[in-house]
Every structure is written in C-alpha cells, then in structure tokens.
User: What shape does this take?
Amino acid sequence: MKKGQIYEGVIESVDFPDKGNVYVADEKQYVVVKNGIPGQKIRFMVQKIKHGSARGRLLEVMERSSLETREPVCSQFPACGGCMYQTMSYEAQLEMKAGQVKRILDRALVPGGCYEFEGIQGSPEEFGYRNKMEFSFGDSYKDGPLSLGLHKKGSTYDVLTVSDCRLVHRDMTIILDCVLQYFQELGTSYYKKLQHEGYLRHLLLRRGNATGEMLINLVTTTQEEHDLQPLVQRFLGLELEGRIAGILHIFNDSLSDVVRSDRTELLYGQDYFTEKLLDMEFKVTPFSFFQPNSCGAEVLYRTVREYIGDIRDMTVFDLFSGTGTIAQVLAPVAGQVIGVEIVEEAVEAARENAAKNGLDNCRFIAGDVFKVLDEIREKPDVIVLDPPRDGIHSKALPKILDYGVDRIVYISCKVTSLARDLEMIQGRGYELVKCRAVDQFCQTVHTECVCLLSRKQEG
Assistant: This one.
C-alpha cells in the first residue's frame, strides 16, 4: 500500500466517532477512513502510513450500505460536514452508537472488571433539535460568491450555504438567509484565514426550544466599519415562529479560527436568552456552555439524577458546571451544591439562574478546576464531572480523585476521552458500575454517555 494511491473497499465497521475500517483485499490490510457508514463500498486515497497503519480520505461512495434506508432531507448532504447519518434510520443510528460506546468502554476496563451497560436513550426530537449553531462565512470554491453555513466534509476552508439545514429550527435558517442576502448585496468581504484579511467571520445563533427566544451574534473583525442598523431592521421585520431577544455585534481579531469576543456591542434587546428545562428557567449568554439539545438535555439530566442516588444533606461538587444546569437539577434533593466553571459569564448566569429558580443552596465559583479546588474549604460527599470534549486535564484529575468520595458521576460527550480518564480513575481505586448512552446529536457521529463510578471498599 502506498501513500497517494487510490483504492477501493467496503467499510466493515465504524469506531467512535467516525473512523471506518476498510479492508483492502489485494493489500491484505485495513485502512481507517473517516466519514463513512458500515457496508458502503467506497473509493479512497491513502493519505498517511505510520507504523504499518494506514489512513485514507474518502473520495466517493460507490455503493450505498444496506443501513441506508431513507433519502436525505437536506440539499447539501452528503457534502456538508454537519451531518453523517441522514440516510440511516434513527433506530439504526442509535444501535450503531450504542455499540461504539460499549466497545470502547469494554476495552478501557481493567482486567477482571465488569459493569452494566444500559444501552442508549434517543433524543425526543430527531430534527430541529439544536439550540446553538455556529455558521461560518466563506465560499464553496476558490474565489466563489459569498457563502454562509457549514464546512464541507474534510475541509477547513470550503463553506456550503445550508439554507435548509434540518439540525436547527427553521427560524435559524431564515435568519441565515437574511444575513447572507444582506452582505451579498453589499459585496462585503469575508475573513480569509491564510491571509488574515477580511471582515465577516461567523454567525452564532442560539434559540430556546421551550421559549422560542433567539440571540443573534454577528462575529466580524475590526478591519472594516459598517452601519449594521439596516440589518437589525431586516431582522426585526422577519416572520419568525419565535422572537428575537437580542442582537449582538462581536468583534474578533484573533488569528485562530475560533468564535470568541475581543469586544461586544449590543445592537438590540438583551445579551442573553432564556431556556426552560425540567420546570426551571436558565439564562444563557453568547459564550456560556449549555447543552445544545434542550429536549435531549432533560433526558440526560434525569439520568444523572437517577445515577447520583440519595444525596440528602450531602455536599455535591459539580465540576465544569457551565450555566449551572446540573447543579440546579440536583440542588432540591441535596444539602448543598458547589459548581466550578472557568467561563466567568457562565458563572454569572448560573448565579442568576439559581436565584431565579429560588435555590439558595447552590454556590458557583469562576476559575480553573485545577486551581479552585485548593481554595474550597468544603469537602464533597459526591462529585459530578461534565468536562469538555477533551476530558479532564491530567493535573486536575488526581486532585479530584484525592477527595476519595464514594460516588462519582461522569458525563462525557466524547467517549474516547472518558476511556483515557478511566485508566487513572480505575488505577486510583474506582470501578465503573454502570453506563448509559444518551444521544443528543442525531444525524451526527457524536453522543453523550453517563457513567456511575464507585470507590472500591477496602477489604
């Protein structure tokens, strides 16, 4: 097998999140190819060979898989990188994801370890479920017309306009079309990542599923100056199912391709929207973490509440707490809950949310978990972990385990990161008791899972 050569093969299986294993009979070798579905016959090019392991890039799906039993609902499928599994039934998606999670956790267990895998719970909404989406400005081919949407599969540059994206509510795509048309008419430049030149960067949209409130965030550089009030008036004239709570202009001159704020200007309304989960209200700001699938989050948090068990009169640490949703779900049945979150605006929102929901036994601290744990006087009885996709930093995890609590509930949005953390967790005397996957990301390669970890009793 040679780098740069083109081969054909059938995807035999897909490991989490989207690494397809293709056996090339002529070469008697497996190749890992992303963005495929088990059973597809594909043509691919070998991009890398390292230590005898080959990786390839998908060029063409020559024959569909038997798992692909329906037609796509979006005009940009399969080119768009936002979705992978539209042509699979949702039941088949769930079965595949559950198998991926279980295989990875099985491999992560220490010798002799065992646990109960409780399968997967699906999202109440299969389409239109996302309450947050980051759209990028760009073009779909070199020097093409302005586009606004999502990147092509396998590309960090080409952007496809996704006017009929089915992952989001129709209100979001109406706003996307409005923004794109406005700047196309003006001939406004977009930011080119290689040259570091241009104005338009991202359109960050957030929408409350229960409330219909929307937050529109236009992200640009400071390289040009534009009066955005005409665009604001266009927004306010749109016929939407929900209502616009706020419109913000976010200035970002970072060289990296991230959505962040150097400075934010409020153009209309307020700088947050409100969402409701499990009969509680939550204030969500532009950059604060909030589960992107509101209906799926309720399923997830019910699982957390079930796994954590009886916490009456106990102190619970909610680490990586975001806007404090988990802390407030647990507070009514706990002695006290202390949340730690590095994003300050998320902590401010969490404090306001707790006050709004009448919870006086929650405390939220802004800062890095690794540093903050040294400053907290209280000792936890139970710990909830909901880290970012990359898992828990190797310096923070030992501090967390040093508390020696009997129960830890770990919520993971990337099971491979969880599997890596399990090595240290099990090495420090904990065992995986049970796990349940919860699908929050229908049509995509991602899923969440909740694990109950228990400290082994000595003797």
In short: The chain has a mean pLDDT of 95. The radius of gyration is 23 Å. Residues 301 and 326 are 7 Å apart (CA to CA).
